[in-house]
């Protein structure tokens, strides 16, 4: 009887801890040689690209590679999977660049859900198609088109119970919440104390 109680308590704690697993992600900069070969035509990107940087993000779902660059005074990113095919693309925007109705829906959700919050960055994302030629989606990205398939990613700092936490929130083009994920703090392994 005594062992059954302890076994039940341990089983409960293990299942409780296993259900609370979050998706942990970590992004770090890599060299161009470590980046997978892209299945894109280099002419699509154009000659005006500046500050080209390569990143690798590892999380529990898989590995994603990012090409971040600056073109025409906007900060763009292209997301690739391990095979080198385009997953999504986008660029950094401000509140003024989002349609008014969409931003009011997003702002209403944030004010209802959190006591205090501050938006660090907003990205407008364009999901890639599953076809072999992803060129039209890149032209949508570079033309800053507002489409019903747009996704807005907010990186924000929220304060609840006197604790600051960083969150990643994804909203659809109509302002409804698609998903949220706690963001990890920046990796400072290079700093010695």
Features:
alpha+beta; single chain; 193 residues; nine-stranded antiparallel sheet; Nuclear Transport Factor 2, Chain: A
Question: What does this entry look like structurally?
Answer:
- This protein has four helices and nine strands, in the order H-E-H-E-E-E-E-H-E-H-E-E-E.
- The chain has 193 residues and is an alpha+beta fold.
- It has one domain (24-182): Roll (Nuclear Transport Factor 2, Chain: A).
- A nine-stranded antiparallel beta sheet has the order 1-2-3-4-5-6-7-8-9.
- The longest helix has 18 residues, at 2-19.
- It is globular.
- The protein starts with a helix and ends in an 11-residue tail after the last strand.
- The model has no long low-confidence stretch (mean pLDDT 80).
User: How many separate helices?
Assistant: 4
Q: What does the radius of gyration come to? A: 20 Å
Distance between the termini: 52 Å
Low-confidence stretches: none
Number of domains: 1
The secondary structure category is: alpha+beta
Q: Biggest β-sheet: count, sense, barrel?
A: 9 strands, antiparallel
Q: Say what the CATH topology is.
A: Nuclear Transport Factor 2, Chain: A
| Total beta strands | 9
| Succession of helices and strands | HEHEEEEHEHEEE
Portion in strands: 35-45%
Shape verdict: globular
Strand order of the largest sheet: 1-2-3-4-5-6-7-8-9
Mean pLDDT: 80
Helical content class = 10-25%
Architecture (CATH level 2) name = Roll
- CATH class group: Alpha Beta
């Amino acid at each position: 009887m005594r062992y059954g109680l302890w076994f039940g308590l341990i089983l409960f704690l293990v299942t409780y801890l296993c259900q609370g697993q979050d998706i942990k992600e970590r992004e770090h900069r890599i060299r161009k040689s470590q980046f997978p070969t892209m299945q894109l035509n280099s002419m699509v990107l154009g000659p005006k690209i500046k500050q080209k940087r390569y990143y690798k993000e590892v999380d529990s779902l898989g590995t994603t590679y990012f090409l971040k660059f600056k073109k025409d005074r906007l900060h763009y990113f292209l997301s690739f999977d391990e095979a080198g095919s385009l997953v999504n693309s986008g660029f950094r925007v401000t509140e003024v660049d989002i349609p008014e109705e969409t931003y009011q829906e997003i702002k209403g959700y944030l004010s209802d859900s959190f006591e205090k919050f501050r938006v660090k960055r907003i990205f407008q994302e364009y999901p890639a198609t599953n076809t072999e030629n992803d060129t039209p989606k890149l032209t949508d990205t570079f033309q800053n088109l507002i489409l019903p398939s747009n996704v807005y990613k907010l990186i924000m700092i929220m304060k609840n119970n006197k604790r600051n936490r960083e969150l990643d929130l994804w909203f659809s083009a109509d302002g409804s919440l698609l998903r949220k994920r706690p963001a990890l703090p920046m990796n400072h392994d290079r700093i010695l104390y």
